[in-house]
Write a structure and sequence with these properties.
The chain is 36% helix and 23% strand. Strand 2 and strand 3 form a beta hairpin.
Length: 207
């Protein structure tokens, strides 16, 4: 835990960009009956019945000190999906940055081995050399600032049922563009000193 908190309080460096990454599955839900449109003093009303149209995954990358994020919808979240997302992060989002300080959970797909499984060895090594990975501890996903961005997207950007992956991509892209235009930043205030006081029970006890 303290490792992640130290990363968050490190000195800002344009050549070492902090990026938090997370992913979330979403159901694709269609309507069986048309919703009742909103009226004066009345919100849109949806029928309790709905149609399941499968699932998709939203990958979220956020650079909190830059007020930047990229949310992207995929059909799955395999090792190859994660590897291609990392390639895009390094070659398109931040092609000129020497090192990406990457914070994420320790899902078994989130490893440098996934890069070697997906790309030729020389290419995979080039990507690995530009990554400094920090894993959040078990049951400590709340330390990942990408979770905050996902909560904003899910609770404010996706407030209605989305029936298809094509529509989900449109909704997520529109939210992403709007939030990046405002350069919304995350004001993280939880420090190592706070952890040692408020989470004292999690530390070893010496008598």
């Amino acid at each position: 835990m303290e490792d992640i908190l130290d990363v968050y309080t490190g000195k800002y460096d344009e050549n070492r960009v902090l990026v938090c990454m997370d992913e979330v599955p979403r159901q694709l839900i269609g309507e069986i009956r048309n919703p009742v449109p909103a009226g004066r003093g009345r919100i849109t009303r949806y029928d309790t019945e709905y149609k399941r149209n499968g699932t998709c995954v939203i990958f979220m990358f956020a650079a909190p000190l830059k007020g930047w994020r990229r949310a992207e919808v995929t059909e799955q979240r395999t090792r190859l999906d994660w590897a291609h997302q990392i390639k895009k992060l390094l070659t398109k989002d931040f092609p000129n940055v020497k090192k990406i300080v990457l914070v994420m959970d320790n899902l078994n797909t989130h490893t440098k081995g996934s890069l070697y499984k997906t790309f030729p060895p020389d290419e995979a090594k080039g990507y690995c050399d530009r990554l400094e990975i920090h894993y959040t501890p078990k049951h400590g996903s709340w330390l990942n600032m990408a979770e905050i961005e996902i909560n904003v997207l899910v609770n404010h950007g996706l407030t209605k049922r989305v029936p298809t992956i094509g529509q989900m991509k449109k909704e997520v892209t529109a939210w992403n563009k709007s939030r990046n235009m405002t350069s919304s930043k995350i004001n993280w205030r939880f420090s190592t000193d706070d952890a040692r006081i408020k989470l004292k029970r999690l530390y070893p006890q010496f008598i």
